[in-house]
Specification:
eight-stranded parallel β-barrel, single chain, alpha/beta, globular, TIM Barrel, 14 helices
Length: 331
């Protein structure tokens, strides 16, 4: 099982310490979130990580097509590859806090597919047209992989059709893994691509602590952010939510914040959603609890997992403790 983590780069010191831990404990992938208003610029953070590491892959996890022109993102990931050859990944998503906090629109699935095609063409050294303008990056040495982030069927299909990889944010239960991966595979097959053409990573929240109750109290905030913000939008039945939970999920969606904190964690508890959302979207608690939950995810078919530690009670403690006590059991 391959394991990575993503985080909001709150401070330069946090970036340096998490980069050191990623290298020290042998994480496979480290991701930096693009979330204006919540943290520092992700490309500055990614550059710091590239200069501080030798082995771990580095992903923008994820940016979008509207707050940053896709040609600008293509140039940025190609520049990062010059610092970390063969280790840079550009993740693109519809936009959530990264667009909402700026008051601009996100992207639909067809635009995501078009954006991935455009960026991949540029990274291949060819000129490409986006909207009414043409861009060209003749200095690119090698193409970096372009991943799409998806939770709904259309976004997952866009990844299968047009991307090098996909960050699936749909859930860790067996039925979630099967449904989401099938959406990617079916779209890939229709596009004449093989399953091996698309690298699949499943996403989840992580909060690992020696005090399990601390993780329990904190992880609800990111569960609200993931579930209400983008994973469970639209048709809840199509998103795999049991019918009896639909009213509570709808209320969560109407009351949660894009800058999650204690209020969101309390809201998840108030609505009686913690057990369901945590089993689907999180690994949390003591190292022993995390090992047990990760074993369940592995049995459900998860082969590569990308953890968000942005809102863990202590992101650095989580990454360190998980690296010391949980990763060795997977290797």
């Amino acid at each position: 099982m391959r394991v990575g983590f993503l985080f909001w780069p709150f401070t330069p010191n946090l970036v340096r310490e998490l980069a050191a831990d990623a290298e020290r404990y042998g994480y496979d992938l480290i991701g930096i979130a693009d979330t204006p208003g919540n943290a520092m610029d992700p490309w500055v953070a990614a550059t710091m990580v590239a200069q501080a590491t030798q082995n771990v892959r580095i992903a923008l996890c994820v940016s979008n097509l509207t707050s940053r022109h896709p040609a600008v993102s293509a140039a940025a990931i190609a520049s990062l590859d010059l610092l970390a050859p063969g280790r840079a990944i550009l993740g693109i998503g519809a936009g959530h806090s990264g667009t909402r906090n700026l008051g601009i629109r996100g992207s639909g699935a067809s635009e995501l597919a078009d954006g991935a095609d455009f960026i991949r063409t540029l990274l291949g050294g060819k000129p490409a047209t986006w909207r009414s303008g043409q861009a060209h990056l003749p200095w690119v040495r090698q193409p970096s992989p372009v991943f799409l982030a998806g939770s709904g069927p259309r976004a997952l299909a866009a990844a299968g059709h047009s991307a090098d990889g996909v960050f699936i944010n749909y859930g860790l239960l067996a039925e979630n893994v099967e449904r989401s991966e099938n959406a990617v595979r079916e779209a890939a097959a229709k596009a004449g691509r093989a399953r091996s053409d698309i690298e699949i990573w499943h996403m989840a929240a992580l909060d690992c602590s020696l005090e399990g109750t601390v993780s329990r109290q904190r992880v609800g905030a990111i569960l609200a952010f993931m579930a209400a913000g983008y994973v469970l939008g639209g048709d809840l039945t199509a998103r795999g939510v049991p019918t009896n939970l639909h009213p509570a999920i709808r209320e969560l969606q109407s009351r949660y914040s894009t800058r999650p904190g204690k209020a969101d964690a309390d809201l998840v508890d108030e609505l009686g959603l913690f057990d369901y959302l945590s089993s689907r979207f999180a690994v949390y608690g003591t190292p022993e609890m995390c090992r047990h939950q990760l074993s369940a995810a592995r049995a459900a078919g998860v082969e590569q997992i990308m953890f968000s530690v942005s809102l863990a009670a202590d992101p650095l403690e989580t990454v360190t403790l998980f690296g010391e006590r949980v990763l060795p059991a997977l290797r």
